């Protein structure tokens, strides 16, 4: 056909066909550009507009770091730090702007003025000289999380294992930083590998799929992840390191730091700070104190206990009241500057002692089960069971052997409740009816005296107490294998006294984080009964009830779909004409101009798009000292994408032009066409036909590349998917995003395929 086209140009019919086809191509291309322009005209309505100056406070945060900052089921950015920031803004009459950032570029965001501060569980330790810091407001620790049932029980067990941490995190610094301890550096060297990931959702997905053996992270985040993922994971008791969180301001910005800090002090003074901390289950980690307070300071803590209940509390050979609970209480008092008053009480009158304020709490292996509504309880700190003790040579080997026997229990005890209480099981009630007698005694010393002299056949009591008594009595007694019931111990406060409960409980949490709680438990042989868990304090803060359906996820993703489409269409709108211009320069006969185009194309194709976006956004500030503000973020994305894709389109266009036989140009010259007419009516239409397949590939790639916009913290669809995945601790949002990309690319491929068929009229 090309030959006929060239050599029969004087044939009027062929000339007319040439003109008709040229007009068809030109009209189509112009039509497409018109449609895209119309789409963009509506898009620009939603583009960032320059706002009148207003007093805003822009907080930079990692939106995949619950409970400090993340996207909730309603598509809102929420978290402990964001609630604090909102309250600070409310009190100062500021407007809060929540700005998600790429954590790897937080310093550039801060130094360029894009954000006012970094407020997101931001560790001071090791960064003291890099920012202007607020005072610390949260004590935190780095812990290790493994799969439930893992054979990793201690830090030493991590040898030859793969451990994952977030890039540029406190966990990474704890192992490899300049201030890392020699012990931690040695531990890191013992790993098979210390992997880095971009976020903790990825870390836990790797752990769940057994691609790694452990994750090291902040304890607050660890509690959230463990509870949100259905307790598939567990936390090691040993801590890797301790640290403190602060708010990081640009170096030298003391004025803003002081204003925020003073507001936080005021919030501590009126209780608002602790209220927010409790909402997120972090009150035990708070370390910020008001500079002055009108509250009367407590000086003593009076603990009520049964002095005949070893190993929790009893009188030793020196006449001193000692025991596990009393030692815990002593440490709590020491840390709070209180004096401990040990007050033995009649167990039958414990409620009267508490309600009359004779004691501040009942702390003595005190069972929560069945008494949940009678006191203000701390979280459980000891798991315990009710067991049966008999003489070592007794014929009683199972619970069924107790039929017709006399069993002693303490009055108003968990053992008595296990047999006769409202919540007692039918099995235990039936067992109690089969006994000759269920004898109540005042204390366990009397119970064991009756067992020893034969007036009772068995004693029912708490397992930890039973173990202590068996050892203390030189193994004259034995514990049956079968258990009567399970229970948990807590500290009972007067109903409504949540303030004292919170203080004591938070101190216990800190003791556990530091290993002191386990140390005391080990001294009394109770370490295997420990169940103290910070997530129990506020289970609603770590609740997984807000799991989103696929439909809800899709609706939230729609917020980012529009941003993705804007990037896509605007990039095409600007990069294609720019690419065509580059093609002309690249094919110029002037070697100098041609060289410029070749260098530009080489740089754009030879460096990552992510790097180019960073340069476009940050270069004005770091090279010229020009701060272009928040609105420039969007324009930088479009500029970066357009410059990059123009280079690729330029080479595709050049290949398309060069694919048109030179005879076509000669034929046009014979017909008297000018160079511009030759290109517009002959070369360009045929070029379009030839380049459609590679252009289609680039367009499909562009759809997927839009996700790179988040490097400039421009929130598009895939970024939202990652944020939802982090908050929901689920990979489903990522699959939903993948489905969108697939469907959209299928549509692009379909339309481009139809266009390609339409242009096949030469065949």
Integer-rounded radius of gyration: 36 Å
Helical stretch count? 26
What is the CATH third-level topology name of the domain at 2-46 and 548-758?
A: MetI-like fold
Task: Bin the strand percentage.
Answer: 15-25%
Average residue pLDDT: 82
Kindly provide the name of the CATH class of the domain at 2-46 and 548-758: Mainly Alpha
The low-pLDDT segments are: 1-15, 25-53, 291-296
Structural class: alpha/beta
Biggest sheet record: 9 strands, mixed
List how many beta strands DSSP finds: 24
Say which CATH homologous superfamily of the domain at 2-46 and 548-758 is assigned.
MetI-like
Overall 3D form: elongated
The CATH architecture of the domain at 2-46 and 548-758 can be named as: Orthogonal Bundle
Q: How helical, in percent, are the residues?
A: 40-55%
Termini Cα gap:
8 Å
In words, what does this structure look like?
Helices cover 49% and strands 18% of the residues. The chain is an alpha/beta fold and 763 residues long. The strands form 4 sheets. Strands 1, 5, 6, 7, 8, 9, 10, 11 and 12 form a 9-stranded mixed beta sheet that branches. Strands 13, 17, 18, 19, 20, 21, 22, 23 and 24 form a 9-stranded mixed beta sheet that branches. α2 packs across α19 (550-586).
Features:
single chain; alpha/beta; D-Maltodextrin-Binding Protein, domain 2; nine-stranded mixed sheet; 24 strands; 49% helix; elongated; disordered N terminus
Give the topology, please.
Layout: H1 2-7, H2 12-43, E1 56-61, E2 64-65, E3 69-71, E4 77-78, H3 80-92, E5 95-100, H4 106-111, E6 117-123, E7 132-133, E8 138-147, E9 162-166, H5 170-176, H6 182-190, E10 193-197, H7 200-208, E11 214-218, H8 219-228, E12 233-249, H9 254-269, H10 272-279, E13 300-305, E14 308-309, E15 313-315, E16 321-322, H11 324-336, E17 339-344, H12 350-355, E18 361-367, E19 376-377, E20 382-391, E21 406-410, H13 414-420, H14 426-434, E22 437-441, H15 444-453, E23 458-462, H16 463-472, E24 477-493, H17 498-514, H18 516-523, H19 550-586, H20 591-606, H21 609-624, H22 632-658, H23 662-671, H24 675-705, H25 717-728, H26 732-758
Parallel strand pairs: 1-5, 1-6, 9-10, 9-11, 13-17, 13-18, 21-22, 21-23
Antiparallel strand pairs: 2-3, 3-4, 6-12, 7-12, 8-11, 8-12, 14-15, 15-16, 18-24, 19-24, 20-23, 20-24
């Amino acid at each position: 056909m090309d030959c006929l086209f060239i050599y029969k140009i004087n044939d009027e019919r062929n000339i007319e066909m040439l003109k008709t086809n040229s007009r068809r191509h030109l009209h189509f291309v112009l039509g497409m550009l018109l449609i895209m322009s119309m789409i963009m005209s509506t898009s620009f309505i939603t583009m960032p507009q320059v706002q009148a100056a207003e007093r805003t406070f822009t907080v930079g945060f990692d939106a995949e770091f619950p409970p400090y900052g993340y996207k909730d089921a309603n598509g809102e950015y929420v978290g402990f730090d964001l609630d604090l920031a909102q309250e600070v803004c409310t009190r100062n009459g500021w407007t809060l702007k929540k700005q998600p950032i790429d954590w790897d570029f937080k310093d550039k965001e801060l130094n360029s003025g894009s954000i006012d501060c970094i407020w997101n569980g931001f560790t001071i330790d090791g960064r003291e000289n890099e920012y202007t810091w607020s005072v610390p407001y949260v004590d935190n620790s780095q812990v290790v999380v493994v799969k439930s049932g893992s054979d990793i029980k201690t830090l030493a067990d991590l040898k030859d294992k793969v451990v994952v941490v977030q890039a540029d995190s406190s966990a990474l610094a704890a192992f490899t930083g300049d201030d890392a301890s020699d012990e931690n550096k040695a531990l890191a060297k013992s790993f098979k590998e210390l992997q880095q990931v971009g976020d903790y959702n990825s870390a836990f997905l790797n752990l769940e799929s057994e691609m790694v053996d452990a994750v090291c992270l902040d304890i607050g985040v660890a509690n959230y992840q463990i509870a949100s993922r259905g307790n598939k994971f567990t936390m090691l008791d040993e801590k890797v390191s301790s640290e403190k969180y602060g708010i990081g301001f640009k170096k030298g910005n003391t004025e803003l730091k002081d204003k925020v800090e003073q507001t936080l002090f005021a919030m501590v003074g009126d209780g608002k700070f602790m209220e927010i901390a409790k909402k997120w289950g972090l009150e035990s980690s708070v370390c910020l104190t008001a500079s002055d307070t009108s509250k009367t300071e407590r000086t003593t803590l009076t603990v009520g206990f049964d002095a005949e209940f070893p190993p929790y509390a009893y009188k030793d050979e020196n006449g001193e009241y000692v025991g596990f609970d009393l030692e815990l209480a002593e440490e709590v008092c020491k840390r709070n500057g209180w004096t401990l008053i040990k007050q033995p009480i009649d167990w039958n009158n414990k409620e009267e002692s508490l309600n009359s304020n004779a004691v501040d709490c009942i702390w003595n292996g005190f069972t929560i089960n069945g008494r949940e509504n009678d006191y203000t309880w701390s979280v459980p700190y000891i798991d315990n069971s009710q067991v049966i003790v008999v003489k070592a040579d007794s014929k009683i080997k199972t619970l069924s052997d107790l039929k017709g026997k006399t069993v002693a229990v303490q009055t108003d005890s968990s053992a008595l409740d296990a047999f006769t209480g409202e919540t007692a099981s039918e099995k235990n009630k039936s067992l109690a009816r089969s006994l000759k007698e269920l004898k109540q005694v005042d204390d366990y010393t009397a119970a064991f005296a009756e067992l020893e002299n034969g007036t009772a056949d068995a004693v029912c009591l708490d397992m930890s107490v039973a173990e202590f008594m068996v050892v203390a009595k030189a193994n004259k007694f034995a514990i049956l294998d079968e258990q009567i019931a399970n229970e948990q111990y807590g500290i009972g406060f007067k109903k409504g006294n949540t303030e004292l409960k919170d203080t004591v409980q938070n101190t216990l949490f800190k003791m556990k984080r530091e290993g002191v709680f386990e140390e005391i438990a080990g001294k009394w042989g109770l370490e295997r009964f420990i169940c103290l868990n910070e997530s129990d304090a506020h289970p609603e803060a770590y609740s997984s009830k807000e799991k989103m359906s696929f439909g809800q996820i899709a609706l939230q993703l729609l917020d980012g779909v529009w941003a993705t489409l804007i990037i896509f269409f605007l990039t095409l709108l600007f990069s294609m004409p720019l690419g065509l211009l580059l093609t002309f320069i690249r094919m110029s006969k002037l070697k100098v101009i041609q060289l410029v185009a070749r260098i530009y194309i080489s740089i754009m194709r030879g460096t990552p798009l992510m790097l180019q976006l960073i340069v476009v956004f940050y270069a004005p500030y770091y090279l010229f000292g020009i701060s272009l503000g928040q609105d420039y973020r969007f324009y930088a994305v479009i500029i970066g994408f357009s410059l990059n894709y123009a280079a690729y389109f330029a080479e595709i266009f050049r290949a398309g032009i060069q694919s048109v036989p030179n005879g076509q140009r000669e034929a046009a010259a014979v017909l008297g066409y000018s160079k511009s007419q030759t290109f517009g009516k002959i070369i360009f239409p045929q070029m379009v036909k030839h380049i459609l397949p590679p252009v289609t590939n680039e367009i499909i790639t562009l759809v997927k590349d839009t996700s790179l916009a988040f490097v400039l913290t421009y929130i598009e669809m895939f970024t939202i998917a990652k944020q939802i995945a982090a908050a929901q601790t689920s990979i489903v949002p990522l699959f939903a995003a993948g489905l969108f990309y697939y469907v959209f690319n299928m549509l692009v491929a379909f339309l481009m395929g139809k266009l390609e068929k339409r242009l096949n009229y030469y065949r």
